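in:
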């Protein structure tokens, strides 16, 4: 029985698992109920399982049993597990009710990775190497991948991976069931910055007797847009967004301080380094001109996600073999969102793959996008996503001549 046929036979089980997981969304690095449900789904399989020490991660290693020549290669498949602090408004009969939501489709990621695990266990006699399955918490902004790397993820099989793949589902953009890839930069880097402008408070009627922090804060926020448009190439862009602003307690009081937080994103390491250098110099210069001081903090988050060119072409070929060439599209531009799978791709050549799970009754151009409280995902894509991951792994570590 082929991998795809095997997964077709267990499709309903995988969908049931996805819906179970959808109803118990947990946020961040500690996901005890989610971890327990995944461990139950893996019970009885021929796996070497390691649990995270600091986070609720699961790493499972499958040892292939096919004979091979020389050193047996290792490949890695990733599925993220965490949800978002979003109150669900999808209207699904299995919607979550605990104030969190799998609004980014990570419940599908877990289900399809479990499907790939089961398919490869069933076909382990085709594997002349080993597979690492990475079930990761904390992708949504808290860098769960970094914790797993620090705890030895890449060395758990005894040899480092020669290739790595991850699938991410979308609730919009492409028709349901379409896989998408792009060689090179596929997603942006992301960094957070926090700024506190330190002035001297006073009466609103006498600003000359105070050092108003609000006006320089406004100038700083406005200047971030000028930096983007005047200091960076439009073909190597950056995105700077200020998302939180706070100042003052009353309409007639000049506050002691004002503060704002934001993010900057870039599509190359060079642009990321430049914006990281420019922003604090910009803020300090504006502060000096206004006679105030400024505290600046950068919180480094995710690097640029870069797909390997050869692996991207390989994914397109395997999709065409399994499902037909019409099930694959190539993105023209990278996404300005960020992903900590970027850390895996810094260590091993691989590919971050998109898969549309937009329900067929919705228009992909207007359907609620990932992270929306109204986002819906068609879980009929789970078996196909599992089949692609399993085939990518199986073909890479197949015995010579097969």
């Amino acid at each position: 029985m082929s991998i795809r046929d095997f997964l077709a036979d267990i499709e309903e089980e995988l969908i049931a698992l996805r819906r179970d997981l959808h109803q118990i969304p947990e946020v961040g690095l500690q996901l005890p109920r989610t971890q327990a449900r995944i461990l139950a789904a893996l019970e009885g399989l021929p796996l070497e399982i390691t649990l995270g020490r600091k986070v609720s991660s699961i790493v499972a290693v499958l040892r292939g049993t096919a004979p091979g020549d020389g050193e047996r290669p290792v490949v890695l498949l990733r599925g993220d597990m965490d949800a978002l602090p979003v109150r669900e408004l999808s209207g699904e009969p299995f919607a979550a009710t605990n104030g969190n939501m799998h609004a980014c489709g990570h419940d599908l990621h877990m289900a399809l990775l479990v499907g790939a695990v089961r398919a490869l266990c069933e076909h382990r006699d085709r594997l002349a190497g080993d597979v690492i399955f990475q079930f990761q918490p904390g992708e949504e902004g808290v860098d769960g991948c970094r914790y797993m790397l620090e705890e030895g993820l890449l060395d758990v099989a005894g040899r480092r991976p020669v290739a790595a793949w991850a699938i991410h589902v979308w609730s919009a953009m492409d028709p349901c069931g379409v896989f998408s890839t792009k060689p090179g930069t596929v997603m942006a880097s992301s960094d957070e910055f926090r700024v506190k402008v330190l002035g001297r408070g006073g009466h609103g009627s006498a600003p000359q007797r105070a050092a108003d922090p609000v006006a320089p804060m406004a100038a700083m926020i406005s200047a971030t847009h000028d930096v983007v448009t005047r200091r960076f190439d439009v073909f190597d862009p950056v995105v700077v967004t200020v998302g939180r602003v706070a100042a003052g307690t009353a309409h007639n009081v000049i506050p002691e301080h004002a503060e704002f937080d934001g993010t900057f994103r870039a599509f190359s390491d060079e642009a990321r380094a430049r914006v990281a250098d420019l922003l604090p110099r910009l803020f300090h210069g504006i502060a000096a001109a206004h006679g105030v001081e400024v505290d600046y903090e950068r919180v480094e988050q995710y690097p640029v996600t870069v797909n390997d060119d050869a692996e991207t072409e390989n994914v397109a070929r395997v999709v065409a073999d399994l499902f037909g060439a019409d099930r694959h599209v190539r993105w023209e531009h990278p996404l300005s969102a960020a992903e900590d799978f970027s850390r895996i791709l810094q260590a091993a050549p691989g590919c971050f793959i998109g898969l549309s799970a937009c329900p067929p009754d919705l228009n992909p151009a207007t359907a609620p996008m990932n992270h929306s409280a109204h986002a819906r995902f068609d879980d009929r894509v789970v078996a196909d996503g599992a089949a692609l991951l399993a085939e990518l792994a199986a073909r890479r570590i197949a015995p010579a001549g097969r």
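note: The CA atoms of residues 171 and 369 lie 5 Å apart.
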